[in-house]
From TrEMBL:
S-adenosyl-L-methionine binds at residues 9, 44, 65, 122. The keyword S-adenosyl-L-methionine applies. The gene is tpm. Gene3D superfamilies: Vaccinia Virus protein VP39. Keywords: Cytoplasm, Methyltransferase, S-adenosyl-L-methionine, Transferase. It catalyses: S-adenosyl-L-methionine + a thiopurine = S-adenosyl-L-homocysteine + a thiopurine S-methylether. Its EC number is 2.1.1.67. PROSITE patterns: SAM_MT_TPMT. This is Thiopurine S-methyltransferase. It comes from the Bacteria. It holds the Pfam family TPMT. Belongs to the class I-like SAM-binding methyltransferase superfamily. TPMT family.
Length: 210
């Protein structure tokens, strides 16, 4: 799977990339009540401009992406210097308040992200095949502290076996996340030209007593 993503980035087959911030992020982020300076984890971040939107809203951002092309294209999008350093197997590129960690999200350890207080997933869960989605939901729950809030933007499509992007039903989202998160369904978009229907969810990491 890694090789396929790297190839897609090399060949520029990145139809998932949006030139403008996702409307559900703009509409719902403030409703989550995430404190302005809270650091936001963006798993499988690509070169999403949503990270710029979050940074402009005052959040330090930590994106994780294993395609170096995505990271280089992201930082090239702004005329601002970068710092490069390494930490525990990740090559990190920092531009302003955005850190991009190049490597496998599943290798990220709680020790490395202790200061994370919120998260944002658009087209990350749905980039993964079903068995890996279970691992993703569990790993995310391990990384974020009780009380951490996040926005999840998922999708369904007619052919449930096609992908990526994979179709993830509402029932699957409940099943994946409800053991560790309180979930609130926010909205569903009308189908686009390909028949893809996006859904937005607010998540809050449960603690030991709630
Ligand atoms: C569908 S794209 C979504 C990118 C971004 N979230 C957006 O909205 O544009 C999924 C991205 O996840 C990356 N990816 C897939 N599996 C990964 C993993 N295990 N660790 C880090 N990045 C991964 C791929 O290279 C790809 O850029």
């Amino acid at each position: 799977m890694t090789g396929q993503w790297l190839k897609r980035w090399r060949e520029g087959r990145i139809g998932f990339h949006r030139a403008t911030p996702h409307p559900a992020l703009v509409r719902y982020w403030a409703t989550l009540g995430v404190p302005r300076a809270a650091k936001v984890l963006v798993p499988l971040c690509g070169k999403s401009v949503d990270m710029r939107w979050l940074a402009d809203a005052g959040h330090p951002v930590l994106g994780v992406e294993f395609a170096p092309d995505a990271i280089e294209q992201f930082v090239a999008g702004r005329d601002q210097g970068v710092l490069r350093y390494g930490q525990a197997g990740f090559d990190i590129v920092r531009q302003g308040s955005i850190e991009l960690w190049q490597g496998d999200f599943f290798h990220l350890h709680i020790r490395q992200v202790a200061e994370i207080a919120a998260f944002y997933d658009r087209a990350s869960l749905i980039a993964l095949p079903r068995p890996t989605r279970q691992r993703y939901a569990f790993h995310l729950a391990q990384l974020v502290p009780p009380g951490a809030c996040g926005l999840l933007i998922s999708m369904t499509r007619k052919d449930p076996d096609a992908g990526p992007p994979y179709s993830v039903s509402h029932a699957e989202i409940e099943q994946l996340f409800s053991p560790n998160f309180r979930l609130t369904f926010l909205e569903q978009s009308p189908p686009d030209a390909r028949g893809f229907i996006e859904s937005a969810w607010a998540l809050k990491r449960r603690g030991p007593i709630n």
